[in-house]
Amino acid sequence: xxxxxQVIIKNHxxxxxxxxxxxxxxxxxxxxxRSQKEVWETVIKRFKDLKIExxxxxxxxxxxxxxxxxxxxxxxxxxxAEVVRDFIEKMELKNIIIIxxxxxxRVGIKLAAGHPELVxxxxxxxxxxxxxxxxxxxxxxxxxxLVRPFFRPKFMxxxxxxxxxxxxxxxxxxxxxxxxxxxxxVKEDLSEDxxxxxxxxxIITGENDKDTPIAFGEKMQELIPNxxxxxxxxxxxxxxxxxxxxxxxxxxKFINTDITDWTRIY
Length: 266
Known about the structure:
By secondary structure, the chain is α/β, with parallel strands linked by helices. The chain has helices at 41-49, 77-90, 103-114, 136-147, 157-166, 170-173, 179-186, 191-195, 214-223, 239-242, 244-255, and strands at residues 2-9, 12-19, 25-30, 55-60, 96-101, 119-125, 201-206, 227-232. It has an eight-stranded mixed beta sheet with strand order 1-2-4-3-5-6-7-8, sandwiched between helices. The chain is globular, with a radius of gyration of 18 Å.
């Protein structure tokens, strides 16, 4: 059984659900941008079906997503990482394995680099973390700053949306109240944070992921010292849903491996 609950973290109401079984190992799932905790539900149920002993699981709605309250000001990736840190401490979670998808991967990177004592292992799933200078993100950063005054009149709102859509900025458009936060997030390069991660890290990317392509995963493996990169065939940006069984199989092996040089098992 999965139970939905709420808790106050940094003056924000944070919604989460957890598996019913208490365990010595804890999976903490972080969703991507424009997503919510329920995206992990079928994956968590599959882990439960496998009856891995002493394994608990939590998934949270990051502030501004799902039914968690939104921040009043523009946040950075670090602000979200601090919310997760406070959640871990308030819930007294131990032996934590962070599993972060896309934007949730960014948060996991920041948390693992800044608070290594809190996290045992890290799984980055189709994770973001770089400034993709050739993509829509760079265009979005300066366009959102430069054209906003021009589009302030109501009759210009339709044209504003068309321009944003033409540069592929749907994440920006579809996150009312979080647009400045989104710009902060995509402008932050986490390469130095990756270099500082000391815990075992599993990087998983869908073969057909266009948002965070295979090149991102390869670069992450180069930067994160104790890491391994896996590609899920016939999967896109939501590789954990496109190939759920294979995803769970790979992560289960990672969870249950305690050897020092764990990368040899893959």
